[in-house]
Amino acid sequence: MHITDHSASGEPDSLVHDLRKIFKNTIILSGGYTEEKAALAIKNNHADLISFARAFIPNPDLVNRFQNKLPLNQPKFDLFVTPGAAGYADYPVFEESHVI
User: Fold this and answer.
1) Which conformational region is residue 73 in: left (phi greater than 0), alpha (psi within -120 to 50 degrees), or beta?
2) What is the mean pLDDT of residues 15-42?
């Protein structure tokens, strides 16, 4: 089950805790998770997996950035609903340039 959980952004969401008690299959959470908050959610058994969709768009090398504690590019939200690659597929990996 994939759930958008806004508690990572500061809004408490008791639904996630209640679902974990009754749903015994895989739970994927999304909703503004940082690397630290994701690790805590998994450690506390609130989820099995965490989705990083918004973080992956501007950071095609997100795993490398997490592993090496590198800064993240920020998303270009004004380009998210426009046609073309701009704002979706034009972000550099860390070695290619400075952080945007």
Assistant:
1) beta
2) 89
